[in-house]
Amino acid sequence: MLKLSVNYFAKPGRREEFLRRVVEEGILTAIRREEGCLRYDYYLSCQNEDEILLLEAWDTDEHQRIHMEQEHMKRLRAIKDECIAETKLNRD
Asked: Under 8 Å CB-to-CB from 33, ≥6 apart: which residues?
């Protein structure tokens, strides 16, 4: 199993926009339906109004690699470019 944690730091005041767009455009639902996706959940920081934590788990590294190539991930990257200032990825 592959577990990842990703810290997103939104551009000031854009955290809720990022999350709203990911949900409204169906990206979150599409990701959760991908083969091998065991978990894909966003959490908000109480200490930093611009921080988001993403916890994801995949059956295998290959499932996660295929995930990154999906069409909905291109849309997610475009939203990130607009709303997110910094991303830190950690393999658990």
From this structure: none
Name every residue whose Cβ is closer than 8 Å to that of residue 3 and which is 6 or more positions away in sequence. 55, 56, 57, 91, 92
Which one, of 42, 48, 55, 35, lies nearest residue 9 by Cα?
48
Q: Which two tokens stand for residue 8?
A: 């997103």
pLDDT in tens, 16-58: 999 999 999 999 999 999 999 999 999 999 999 999 999 999 9
Residue 36 CA to residue 62 CA, distance in Å, equals 9
Is the model's pTM score more than 0.85?
yes
